Amino acid sequence: SMQRRLNRMLNSSHDHKLLALMDVKGFDPKEITVTVKDGKVKVLAEHEEEHTTARGKEYNYRNITREISLPPGVSEDEVTYSL
Question: Domain named SHSP: which ranges (predicted)?
Fold first, then answer.
């Protein structure tokens, strides 16, 4: 199950603190941008699709934006992320 998998992930990184876990299903890794600046981690995921139909072009756009403040005492260069 998803929960068991998450728990296994959390347990395997016991020497690191997990700040956030995000579901970015439906987004390609290259559509996800992570920046660490001013004591915050910003995650932006953007997905755009273009379909040509009998009525013309249709666009589908969706995005997720999330901003997480770093805990006190954590420096920006300590932050890592993985997809």
Answer: 1-83
- Domain boundaries along the sequence of the chain: 2-72
The hierarchical CATH code for the domain 2-72 is: 2.60.40.790
Q: Name the most confidently modeled range: 55-59, 68-72, 74-78.
A: 55-59
Nearest Cα residue to 41 out of 65, 63, 23: 65
Q: In whole angstroms, what is the distance from residue 11 CA to residue 53 CA?
A: 48
Backbone angles phi, psi at 77, to 5 degrees: -80, -5
pTM tops 0.70: no
SS3 letters across 39-76 = CEEEEEEEEEEEEEECCEEEEEEEEEEEEEECCCCCCH
